[in-house]
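hi!! sorry for the late reply, been swamped w classes. u asked for the two structures so here they r. pasted raw, havent cleaned anything up. first the sequence of the first protein and right below it the tokens
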Amino acid sequence: MGRDAALHAFAQNDLDLAVGYFWNVPDTLICDPMVREPYLIVGARSNPVMQEPLTLESYCAAGHVVVSQKGDMRGIVDRVLKGLGARRNVAVSVPFFFPALTIVGRSDLIAALPATMVRTYADRFDLAFQEAPFDIRSFDISAVRHKRQENDPAVLWAIDLLREAAGTTGT
């Protein structure tokens, strides 16, 4: 379920808890950050671009996969690059992170993906990774619930389990 579908399900009282990257949540929802997640640049181990330290120039010259649930060909990285007076070549847009891992593992494209996912699956997808040659803001993975569930024992229990798994503590 994507972000927009989750927000709609909350509004319809069809969802008690969602976990993911949520931004600009409505006032009717409670957003509990679980983990702050940075990005890494990832590509196939055989990709020549990934065999040397990335520079802004080599990064921009490479072909890229962008992850966008709406199919956009631009994202947060492109806003950062614009501020640096640079632009990258986005070749493919996919709606989720796993297809991006598959594509970069089987091509000469690269992507900016969540660090934990990249480190977890690098060997399985035969990937190399490194930090970006510029700053990309991190993002929060959050547990989101409707204010109707603010004190719901089952939802609070699930959030505690999530915090435990993430190695974080409640506030």
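now the second protein. again sequence first, tokens right under
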Amino acid sequence: MFMKRVLSLCLAVLLGLVCFGAYFREEMPVGSVGTGIAVGTSAIPPKVLHKIRITAGEDVVYGVLYDTPCGRGISQQLPITKEITPPADFAKAFVLDERIESDEELTSVYVPGGLAYWPTGNAVAIFHTPERDMTDVPIIHFGKIDKGEEIFAEYDGEITIERYDESETEE
């Protein structure tokens, strides 16, 4: 009985140290190569590069781009205006004009509201519903919509992604 309590306490301390160390480690951002954790899928949010606004017809949603190689690559191409298509029942996508070079960790895990880059297809995905556990292709997370991603479930048409200055009024 005593050994069981000691073992439980040791495991709790070890877990606490791991969580503490992961939270305060600054030299290697979450999702960088070698961490084993894809950006945008852990409980620790990545650093934000800047805010974005996505206009889809009459609807507008806001989000962020992460300060990662892929996020910076997307940022350099803003503003982006493209027709979106439904490659799957949980996402809408479009092909970029310019390829993004990144050696970031690939994942198949996604979250609703997540923005991700598919390197093989040079495409961006906007995930709108939690229909599945994983994507069919490996992706790199580069941003996230704050709220309202469900508008993309029914929307087909042109979208515009642009930098958003916080001094502007949100609609």
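hope this helps!! also noticed smth abt the second:
The beta strands are 48-56, 59-66, 80-88, 91-95, 107-109, 114-118, 123-127, 134-145, 157-163.
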